[in-house]
Write a structure and sequence with these properties.
The structure holds three protein chains of three kinds. Chain A is of the alpha+beta class. Chain A has helices spanning 2-31, 40-45, 134-142, and strands spanning 54-60, 77-82, 87-92, 105-113, 117-126. In chain A, strands 1-2-3-5-4 form a five-stranded mixed beta barrel. Chain A is elongated. The model of chain B has no long low-confidence stretch (mean pLDDT 91). Chain B is 85% helix and 0% strand. Chain B has helices spanning 2-15, 21-40, 44-49, 51-66, 68-76, 79-86, 90-119, 124-151, 159-185, 191-220. Helices cover 73% and strands 0% of the residues of chain C. Chain C has eight helices and no strands. Chain C is globular. The relative contact order of chain C is 0.15. Classes of the chains: A alpha+beta, B mainly alpha, C mainly alpha. Chain A binds chain C through residues 30, 33-37, 39, 57, 95-100, 104, 107, 122-138, 153, and chain C through 62-67, 70-71, 74, 134-138, 141, 143-144, 196-200, 202-205, 208, 213-215, 217-218.
Chain lengths: 153, 222, 267
């Protein structure tokens, strides 16, 4: 009986240590940020630019969207993705989601060519967690209480 | 302790017999990879790019077909009842069973990986991270798999049910395992975080599986 | 052996003596009328909540400053996602209760919650997909939130499959309970997936430390719809628990008659 008790103690002790180790590992890994997408700053901090296709998330820089062949032609479009710290130029050919506009959060998928240029084969729009009627948004902007979207984070 | 080691030795020996789980799993693993390679066709570049995820998926499926063998034969011939009576803590039996499964099936699959990886034209630099990820992740597969086997020990045909139960629980291993292998091959900074999360998943399985298996076995005794 | 048909009144007597204890509700004769009353109340409440919720949600609430009218998908998507998590938590909790206190109703509640929860999970994934296409530009993305909810759906299916596979109900209840409790690890992962990883899915906008980030005019229909979903869950749970208890009773009676093996009748 005594032996059984000791074995049970080992079991629960072992389970507890394993669980604690799992939590510790998870927290360490998360602090090193495992990502669905990179932000431009994270990309700039990398020692070596990744050669495989990546996802890049951030805001479309105001005034950076250029359609060389007109906005509705579905042809080549270029814009700049920023997170306030660094910027990456993106070129893309294809359909854009409804939410795509300047100042909007986006996640683009594609390959880096050079340090700061990305050729995207997919552009997804990311919306933030704020929901409000248009009038409220306008009023907030007027009062200067608008905190600019942080969709990149 | 001697009982614990004897149980492991017995299960490993059984797994390597002609009808044992380990050899069947390894042949199934090889077949999956060969079929995949045939399906991909002559594009060697594409093949080497997807080698690691294909090997992870294949290893995972091959593990699944070996799981039924962990507890059901013991349940059928009555040796499970003997084990429970002669061993104090049932969770100890569960640990020995999972460990034996990893030492036989898990290690055999890992040993087969480099050979199959070359059939998929893998880059040499990608092989190391893949093997490391498999070493970290496969113990978790054995632990969770033996839990599913314990749950279904009293069912006559549990193979498909085990696959249904185990697949969602295996998903994190596949995500972080293949993620670590891919990041490691590309020399990406995401390698370590992925590997740590894979290790965390294995550790978590080590914490939960023995106790959960023991509880399941208790209700599967007659 | 007492004939079960005659025992209704004796059972009620027994139940009266036991009525102080929760175990009284394990007795179908006691549970039945209570369940029926709860079912009616919850059913009506669900209709009322859904009526107001849909009226405000679809007709009488503002469009979003960015998403326009598409935001109205939120009123069916968010409650479904919440119920997906709530049902799994309820299933794990009543599994634990059934496991620890061996209360048969807890087992039945856990078993009957699973298909409802799976349906809510499917609804959340489906409406999310419809929402994702116009907003994100993709039906599906393999980000942490979407993937973990998809895993939740398959956990429900595995749980249901295990119940089906084990013929002996008591054993099935214990084994399925263990599986439900082990699978619960996915629930916090789903909840925090949007905070831990950079995901395409937005972070939490209602249950967050600094208060909701949804305008009150949109929060009202959202909460009404959550009420509707919750009441619908309760109503469906009561109906299917009664169903299950009746099916077991029929199976028991027929087994006693030796007319048919029980497993041909029970589902």
């Amino acid at each position: 009986m005594k032996q059984k008790k000791r074995e049970r103690l080992y079991m629960f002790g072992g389970a507890f240590i394993a669980a604690a180790g799992a939590v510790a590992l998870t927290l360490t890994a998360l602090s090193q940020s495992i990502t669905y997408f990179y932000t431009p700053s994270e990309l700039a901090d990398l020692e070596e630019a990744p050669t495989r296709p990546i996802r890049l998330g951030g805001l479309v820089l105001d005034g950076s969207v250029k359609h060389p062949t007109g906005p509705t032609s579905g042809e080549q479009i270029t814009f700049v993705v920023t997170d306030g710290g660094a910027e990456v130029r993106v070129s893309y050919k294809g359909l854009l989601p409804d939410l795509f506009r300047e100042g909007q959060g986006v996640v683009v998928q594609g390959k880096l060519i050079g340090a700061n240029d990305l050729v995207a084969d997919n552009v997804l729009a990311k919306h933030d967690e704020n929901y409000m009627p248009k009038e409220v948004a306008d009023a907030l902007k007027e009062q200067g209480r608008w905190k600019d979207g942080d969709a990149g984070s | 302790m001697t009982q614990f080691l004897a149980l492991i030795r017995r299960d490993v020996a059984l797994a390597f017999r002609a009808d044992g789980g380990a050899l069947q799993a390894a042949s199934f693993f090889a077949l999956i990879i060969i079929l995949f390679a045939l399906a991909i066709g002559p594009d060697l570049k594409l093949m080497s790019a997807i080698a690691a995820p294909v090997l992870w998926t294949g290893g995972l499926l091959a593990t699944q077909i070996s799981l039924e063998q962990i507890y059901r034969p013991d349940k059928e011939d009555g040796s499970l009842d003997m084990l429970v009576e002669t061993n104090g803590a049932l969770a100890g039996v569960a640990v020995a069973k999972a460990l034996a499964h990893w030492l036989s099936t898990g290690l055999l699959l890992i040993a087969a990986t480099p050979l199959l990886a070359f059939l998929l034209n893998i880059e040499l630099t990608a092989l190391g991270p893949l093997m490391l990820a498999l070493l970290v992740g496969t113990p978790g597969l054995s632990l969770i798999g033996s839990f599913a086997s314990a749950l279904t020990a009293s069912l006559p045909r549990a193979g498909l049910l085990i696959a249904i139960i185990v697949s969602p629980l295996y998903a994190p291993f596949l995500i972080f395992g293949a993620g670590a292998a891919a990041a490691g091959a590309a020399g990406d900074a995401q390698f370590l975080p992925n590997l740590m999360l894979l290790g965390a998943a294995s550790l978590f399985a080590a914490a939960v599986s023995p106790l959960a298996s023991a509880a399941a076995l208790r209700f599967n005794l007659d | 052996m007492p004939a079960p048909q005659l025992s209704a009144s004796t059972l009620t007597d027994m139940a009266n003596t036991l009525s102080k204890s929760i175990y009284a509700y394990a007795n179908p004769a006691v549970f039945e009328p209570v369940a029926e009353r709860i079912f009616r109340l919850a059913f009506i409440a669900a209709l009322v909540f859904a009526g107001f919720g849909l009226y405000f949600g679809l007709l009488n609430s503002p469009a979003d400053y960015q998403q326009g009218d598409t935001v109205r998908i939120m009123y069916v998507h968010v409650p479904a996602a919440w119920m997906a998590l709530f049902c799994y938590s309820a299933m794990a909790a009543s599994s634990a209760a059934g496991f620890i206190w061996k209360h048969p109703l807890a087992d039945v509640a856990a078993k009957e919650t699973a298909p409802i929860g799976a349906a809510f999970t499917f609804l959340a994934l489906f409406t999310g997909s419809i929402w994702g296409k116009p907003m994100w530009g993709a039906w599906w993305a393999w980000d942490a939130r979407l993937t973990s909810v998809l895993i939740l759906f398959f956990l429900y299916l595995g749980y249901m499959a295990l119940w089906r596979a084990v013929a002996d109900k008591t054993r099935a209840a214990r084994l399925a309970a263990i599986l439900a409790i082990v699978g619960f690890v996915n629930v916090p992962i789903i909840k925090f997936s949007v905070d831990w990883w950079n995901s395409l899915h937005q972070p939490a906008s209602v249950l967050r430390a600094d208060g909701p980030t949804i305008h009150p005019a949109m929060l009202t229909p959202l909460f009404l719809m959550i009420g509707a979903y919750m009441c619908a869950y309760i109503a469906m749970l009561m109906a299917s628990m009664r169903n299950e208890l009746a099916a077991r009773r029929i199976a028991r009676l027929e087994a006693e008659d030796h007319a048919k093996p029980a497993n041909l009748v029970e589902t």
